[in-house]
Amino acid sequence: MREIVRADYSAAYRRLAPEVRATLPQKAFVTAAQPLQQLGQQRGQAIELYKLGTRLGGRGGRGQWFYSFSFASDSLHKPPTVLLEVTFRDTAARQVLGFRTRGH
Asked: 65-85 burial, b if ≥16 CB within 10 A, otherwise e?
């Protein structure tokens, strides 16, 4: 997520799982990531881990692990006004399945 907030799209794209890169061209990834980068410009690039967990009903009926980050500038808001969410296959996975914002 830090790479996206800092507009280092090439590094962020390399973190995607191979099956995601196979279906998502880098140009489309950049287009999808730009709104998150713009939020980083507005709220500051510092992000903090807000929560982690598993969401039931992911791919193939299995849960997906996620990490939610908040902007450090939102630290006084409970809950934060915007969360940046990253999903992974499981707890050992390092490759990203997806990302999105929540609450914005």
From this structure: bbbbbbbebbeeeeebebbbb
Closest CA to 104 of 82, 85, 86: 82
- Amino acid at the residue 48: E
Determine the residue type at 76: L
**Residue 29 or 45, more confident:** 29
Q: Which domains can be identified in the chain, with CATH numbers?
A: 2-102 (3.10.450)
Residues in the chain: 104
User: By the 8 A CB rule, do 1 and 68 touch?
Assistant: no
Residues sharing a CB contact under 8 Å with residue 72, sequence separation 6 or more, in sequence order: 44, 46, 47, 48
pLDDT tens string 45-98: 899 999 999 888 755 667 788 999 998 988 777 888 899 999 988 777 789 999
